[in-house]
Design a protein that fits this description.
Blueprint lengths: L5 H5 L5 E6 L4 H17 L4 E6 L4 H6 L7 E6 L2 E7 L4 H11 L1
Parallel strand pairs: 1-2
Antiparallel strand pairs: 1-3, 3-4
């Protein structure tokens, strides 16, 4: 399977969860184990992406990411949920379930 681009991934009908983060961001590092836990809860039904805003400034600018971590849930190319800061996996699972 070829690698899909960011824009292709977020246009899928299945939810795509995106964590906009940065290497230098302390709270972003706290999200790593939370995202692992989330992946174990949702399995393959949701694609989980981590986007480094310093390596992908155009993606960060396109979605007006002002602070990190900024978490977004995309469905069919639309942002259906957005929040900044560290969020527990249980809460993220509920958000995904609401939009699945």
């Amino acid at each position: 399977m070829s690698k899909m681009s960011f824009s292709e991934l977020i246009k899928r009908n299945e939810p795509t969860f995106v964590d906009f983060s940065a290497e230098w961001c302390g709270p972003c590092k706290m999200m790593a184990p939370i995202l692992e836990e989330l992946k174990s809860k949702v399995g393959e039904e949701v694609k989980i992406l981590k986007i480094d805003i310093d390596r992908n400034p155009q993606a960060a600018a396109a979605y007006q990411v002002q602070s990190v971590p900024t978490l977004m849930l995309f469905k069919a190319g639309n942002v259906v949920w957005r929040q900044s800061g560290v969020v527990p996996a249980e809460y993220l699972k509920r958000v995904i379930d609401q939009h699945a």
